[in-house]
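Hello Y.,

Per our agreement to keep a running log of every chain we model this quarter, I'm adding this entry. I've kept the format consistent with earlier entries: sequence first, then predicted structure.
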Amino acid sequence: MIGGFRQNMTWLHTWAGLVFCWILYFMFVTGTLGYLDLEIDRWMEETPPSAGAAPLEQATNSAMNRLNSEAQGAERWMIFPPDGRESPNLGIFWSMPKVEGSDEPIQRGNEQLDSFTGEPIAEPRRDTGGGQVLYRMHYLLHYFPGQSGYRLVGLITILMFVGMITGIVVHKKIFREFFTFRPGKGQRSWLDAHNLFSVSSLPFQLMITYSGLIFTVGLWMPMIGLASYGFDTKMAANLANELIGEVKVERTGTPGPLMNPMELVPAAEAEWGADEVSYFEILNPGDQDSRIVLHREAGILTRLGGRMVFDGATGEHLETMPPTKLPVLTFAIAMLGLHEGTFAGPFLRWLYVLSGILGTAMIATGAVHWTSKRRKKAEEGADSFGFRLVECLNIGTIVGLPVGIAAFFLANRILPVEMETRADWEIHIMFLTWLACLIYPAIRGRQHSWRDLSWLAAAAYAAVPVVNLATSEMHLGNTIANGDWVLAGFDLTCIATAAVFAGVAVYLSKDSRKPKREATIGAAEQIPLGSS
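Predicted structure for the entry above:
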């Protein structure tokens, strides 16, 4: 670093943003899709719409009947009544006690039930990773052993935060620059676009990056836990239990009565208000010493609301527990809730998606601006390999990754339903397609690659609803007729995405016929990787 403070900040902003920008782009794309994970799950699994939500008492009785039938002797039952998008069906969970002296893992089970009938929901027609695998990729990546992917994401998140702060410092006229856009000016246009996308979503980008750092705080500051618990492998659980508070009760082995949790709801609503009970937890069901815990709706504190603890046999109110014992932990959980956005309704969820798209565009335009700014120097032969490598990675990732995701959706419909490893191969096909798109610019050249891959992306997304029509009953003709706008919205979004890429491809085709212009995406030369 050389020069004054702002010059050093500019250097830091440039290189903190560039070094891992392609992985950061991957994290933003998959993370943005993660806000629609359940909708993607439904389309890929071909799950029929939920039968709806039965009244709380009917759903709870259905769950209790099923647990009494399937999970006798368990040490814990949990009942999750239907609750909108996150829990469209009635969910139950149970865990059996650990066998003393046995190395066998604790037996656990869970089921999704029809809240009216209590019957298990049919298994999905297609085995698939669905939207959940895309969501997990944004913080675990893929093919990385152990926690290496998570650690790499943590490092990149730190660099992203550095890039955000230094970007604010560098752009001292940030709001004037927000209203400045000079089309057709080469690198200035890319910088203006980068500023526009950055400033328009700045609060979201700061929130999502800072809250992402909170997720990895234990990774980068382990001494907080080590100072109290040493190298105990259960440190994290102990720390969480101590800070949040754990309901403990010893099993006596003597059978005892168990109240229906619904009988305790009036007491909880008297303290919390109506419709504030979120789900039920029952410890030692059927034992003389059992507990029923009523959990409160958490809102933005998506991971934890308040709790009321009752004696399972008598219904005596034993304790009311706040969400956390520490204000700082409440703040941390609120930030995690903001990051995940599971509390968001349809409008706010689409605002999350739009902000994610703006963040993705911010990264993409920043990467392209880096090459447009250095093109003249590269064409004179200085640092040509590094420049061309960055350019190939830009093209292969910015357009190639969306092509890979379209291939992921197409593979879901084309691979045989009975194929045992189809969920794995959906992902393999996605990454193999992306790899081919990364190699393509080195062979085909820059100008043709932007245009060709844009056409390929348009064709791939346009093919998704067509292949869906040929392979599934849940195609646009039926979903629109049935008013199933979740599944119809998936196909319509693919069509809209295809239209956007087709528009880009048409623009690039026209631009390539213009005279060569410095530092535009349509400059008419080929630059094979490795040539001098």
